Amino acid sequence: MKTTLSLTTTLLFVFGSLVLTNTVLINLVTNTVNAAEQKKMTLWEQDAPNALGTEEKDKPRITVWFPDKSNATDMAVVVCPGGGYGGLALDHEGKQIGEWFHSFGVTAIILEYRHRGKGYGHPNPLLDVQRAIRTVRFNAKDWEIDPAKIGVMGFSAGGHLASTAGTHFENMEKPNDEIDKMSCRPDFMILCYPVILFDVKFTHRGSQHNLIGANAPKELVEYYSNEKQVTEKTPPTFIFFTNEDKTVPAENGIEFYLALRKYKIPAELHIYQKGAHGQGLAKKQTGNEMWTELCKAWLINNGFLKK
């Protein structure tokens, strides 16, 4: 009882100072996040392929979040926010992801790709993510990145784009510049509640229609049905879903995982019971927030991240 009374008295005595101290700490944390060195750049110096004009919406770009020297790793991830191929969720599937990677020394590259909301469909989102991967690989030495540790990550429709990058990475026959000569194959994929299936019961029709139209030829539907495009060259993959996701059902991830398993591609699939679509870091859903730690462990187990 005496100890409790003493502690209470002390807290009351320094209450004003305690509040001030907490404010300082909060500001320090905020400044640390804001102090992350960032570089914004367009993916093409000249007009992007198939550009409809020269406005900002016609210029796909990346924001590079460089790690602090104190904890920098040699790994990088190109991040594709979701948005149904009609917009971009640049906060909880972009900025917050950049902050998360920055917290453990990974270079994060947030991609603002072209989409239907800007007047663009197939093949432009894929051209943008391929160019982003090539750009990172081209700058690997200057950015202190291992060119064999460049992954791609995507959420929802951005997950479809990321999985497309991981299953469609042919080299360009006629490169236009030195960046085009780089490989656009990602070394790993992180797919968060991704759209995968096209033209079936579990398809997110909005994403499909925004990308290829409502009456696309069967060959194009097949081309973007990424569970059908897995080969022995597809990179290792981490996937997470929720069972309650009705927007993009978990069958999308299950089918892709089974395709990876068929070709003996290292893969990990997590399906959480609770949670609607669009979880992001899943901080508001008890249990689901563990996906980030499981993802880090997976990256360590596969040699992309040091323990």
Could you write a compact summary of the structure shown?
The chain is an alpha/beta fold and 307 residues long. The protein contains 9 helices and 8 strands.
Please tell me about this protein's structure.
The protein has 307 residues and is an alpha/beta fold. The chain has two domains: 1-30; 39-301, Rossmann fold (3-Layer(aba) Sandwich). The protein is 35% helix and 14% strand. It is built from nine helices and eight strands. The protein has an eight-stranded mixed β-sheet with strand order 1-2-4-3-5-6-7-8, with helices on both faces. Strand 5, helix 5 (157-165) and strand 6 (189-192) form a beta-alpha-beta unit. Helix 4 (124-138) crosses helix 5. The protein is globular.
